[in-house]
């Protein structure tokens, strides 16, 4: 059965969608069957793979108009599939409010496709609403991108409290898959300080791989391409290949620092 990983951080601008897209592509290029679920109404993961935001997509899965299988689209990358975000996804949270078992809709809908994929990644919105709660209930674990800046540490504290609440009320098996340092600048003392604090707090859960500040990672989405298709030799693209190798090592647990 495939492993479901929510890529989340309640703080925006930390490289969450960049990680979702480029990690999914890197693992697909490593010949793993991957599904990326774009659960952010902004739809950046969808556009970042060059896909159109049309049809029902993930909204249709939540509404019951589509099965998860029917919502899946193939991408230009072999072995990478996508359930896209569409503009209708904005209405899901309002529609779920009165629904019994509203926090487990995505968990139930994804059950039919888990056997088809090695990893299912859910790109979450940067807020704690019903879309994010559904992702956390559906997930086996969370991957947390953390920008190397001071305020990122405050966001981690908030996320830790959220995960504790989800475990106690809905998903006791939810674990932290890993913490990923993003926008890392080795010349910047603050980057080193944030990395040190995170490793003190999370220990081996912090990935050895760090994602550098890199122009390719910033430019690629505007061309509707992941970094590996835009400039495979760039430091940004290569760092996500390294992360994929780390995750695949030791049965998907990863060799951590």
Task: Describe this entry's structure for a reader.
There is one protein chain. With 257 residues, this protein is of the alpha/beta class. Helix content is 42%, strand content 18%. Strand 7 (175-184), helix 9 (189-202) and strand 8 form a beta-alpha-beta unit. Helix 1 crosses helix 12 (235-248). The chain starts with a strand and ends in a 9-residue tail after the last helix.
Pairing-aware structural class of the strands and helices? alpha/beta
What is the general shape?
Answer: globular
**Average pLDDT, to the nearest integer?**
91
Q: What is the first-to-last residue Cα distance?
A: 27 Å
Supply the number of helical segments.
12
Estimate the strand proportion: 15-25%
Rg calculated over all Cα atoms? 17 Å
Outline the secondary-structure elements.
Blueprint: E1 3-7, H1 16-29, E2 34-38, H2 44-48, H3 57-63, H4 68-71, E3 73-74, E4 80-83, H5 92-96, H6 105-110, E5 119-123, H7 130-138, E6 141-147, H8 150-169, E7 175-184, H9 189-202, E8 206-212, H10 215-219, H11 227-230, H12 235-248
Parallel strand pairs: 1-5, 1-6, 2-4, 2-5, 6-7, 7-8
Antiparallel strand pairs: 3-4
Q: What brief labels describe this structure?
A:
alpha/beta, eight-stranded mixed β-sheet, disordered C terminus, 42% helix, 257 residues, single chain, 12 helices
